[in-house]
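Holo model, magnesium ion. Inputs:
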Amino acid sequence: MKAKDSIRDIKGIGEKSEKLFRKLGITTVEELLAFYPREYDIYTKIQPVLTVQEGETVILEGSFPARLKMASVRGLKIITGQFRDSSGQILISWFNMPYLMKTVKVGMHYILRGKIVRKNGFLQMAQPKILTKEEYANQLGKLQPVYSLTAGLTNNAVKKAVSLALAEYEFESDFLPLEIRKRYNLLLHKKAVQAIHFPESREAYAKARSRLVFEEFFLFSLALRQMKEQKDKMTSIYKIESGSSVEQLFKALPFCLTTGQQNAWEDVRRDLQSGFVMNRLIQGDVGSGKTVVALLALVCAAENGHQGAIMVPTEVLAKQHYEEFMKYLEPIGIRTALLVGSMTAARKREVSARIAAKEVDIIVGTHALIQEKVAYADLALIVTDEQHRFGVRQREMLSEKGQSPHTLVMSATPIPRTLAIILYGDLDVSVIDVLPANRLPIKNCAVGTDYRPQAYRFMEKQVAMGHQVYIICPMVEESEAMEAENVIDYTNSLRDALSASIRIENLHGKMKASKKNEIMEAFSRGEIDILVSTTVIEVGINVPNATVMMVENAERFGLAQLHQLRGRVGRGEAQSYCIFMAGNTSKETMERLRILENSNDGFYVAKQDLQLRGPGDLFGIRQSGDLYFQMADIYQDANELQQANEAACAVGKDGAALLCRKYEGLRRIMEEYTGDIKTL
Ligand code: ADP
Ligand code: MG
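Output:
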């Protein structure tokens, strides 16, 4: 069996399963083998009934002192029975397994494995599997792969397919050269793939993962290096000098640049006039003031007679940037346009025509900038804001709208400079590492729901002082519709709880873009006092007059996301506050939220979060969803990243080395990988 063979060649996979696998993006044997488990199921030791806790999957040993009972609830057959060991007893329930009435015997010894849930206030074990002594002994301590599935496809089916494929697959010789494998103590690719699906132990899993993480970083780093090499050589037809418009903009700004902003701007200015194409990342925590640097660059392009475009991830943010830009650009005669998906077709056509006729200098927009049929007359500079929300591919697509325009990328992903340089290896990096001096650090508190009345009184006070408030409602996993309902309900009860003079509105994902914009604008203008919202508010919104943020069910969010959310306040001169309200005040929850209470530094938060979880908990869980790795995690695997990058540098130095025999396998995979990056 070879890499590109269809999964149909695997025994047991017919037309029906093929379709299901395709839904998961799997059509070839190679893709199946690269479909790593999402997590692992581990059979733990038999536990006394008395010690079980809600949410755990446990194994119990004991017997049923009395006969099982069966009841019919809405057509569902439910079987229940008390299960007892020497420590105590617990209710067991099964549904739709009526045959158990006959097979399960009173007084016999059983080993059960199942999840402990709480029902009507009591703990019970739901839908357990009955294990034989042999099954238990065989599985104890072993890791069973758990795959991400799609309806109709069972975990067992995937497991079987993978195991059959592994047995018949002819792995090619390892593409990582022996020296590298030796130096970094890495498994063979083949061994790693086998062990990642069916690890014999935690140690085996860790070794397998380490190899696969290394290779992901290694290929990524190598591919980026090649992209950078190509770009580095590229001369630009746009040699742009900053002149009087930039001077005027500086005069009009209500603040002086921080040293971080100054340095970033210097870097950009130098790039723009260098005669080579700029490829620069500006990295700075939320609120560090990246926008103004982008604006300076855009003005610079405009005053040299060219066009510049800035792409942002949401319409609300596009509108906001547009309006902010207009304030400065109109007086100095720079023509600005907005292009977003929700505009009418006629309006879009009109804007596009003006862009094509070069009647517009600066264009602010969303994905519409690449999706709509816009022909840019003279696009010399593109900016992508909140790059972590876009793929590399989208950035490239915008870039293709011009003739190798200068590229500026802005991101708030909190990673240290050393990592940024590797991860954005195709870009030069400027870091804005200071916040504007007029900022007071946000005051944070993590509290339980009993604090809510006080929180409401506090909001009333802040509103009376002329400030504004955000309340973030928890995500509802089931659907956007339920999430919307939740936000609406919350808003209604908030209106009842607070003084009638307070203007409360809400914002959620189900709303039309135009409605969202309307609300956001009203909030920006100060016509709404309290905005109840889902996380749609997260990205880049800037309302400096908002001083309070309260996050309901804060325990349901990742710390990095909470940090991003918190970035919506503390953007002006007034003292800002963030209230993280936890739905449960368990020790772990509060400990995690305290990290946010103790620091406003995004990188510190990300790192602490990781340490608290500890490597044990990271079993197959991905932390950061915004970068481009399947298995690797930039925080958890920072060491591997450094090493892989070092190895990639060593290979890359000797350009010809890639071509020589020992790197042949590597080169082939690289070619594919570079292709992948472009389609991200
Ligand atoms: P981010 O880096 O998160 O994109 P923004 O560019 O939106 O941050 O800036 C946040 C706020 O800080 C804005 O209101 C902006 O006008 C203000 N700001 C930017 N630079 C400075 C500065 N040097 N001094 C004071 N305020 C600033
Ligand atoms: Mg921003």
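The CA atoms of residues 592 and 613 lie 9 Å apart. Residues 615-626, 676-680 have pLDDT under 50 and may be disordered.
Archived with the compound record.
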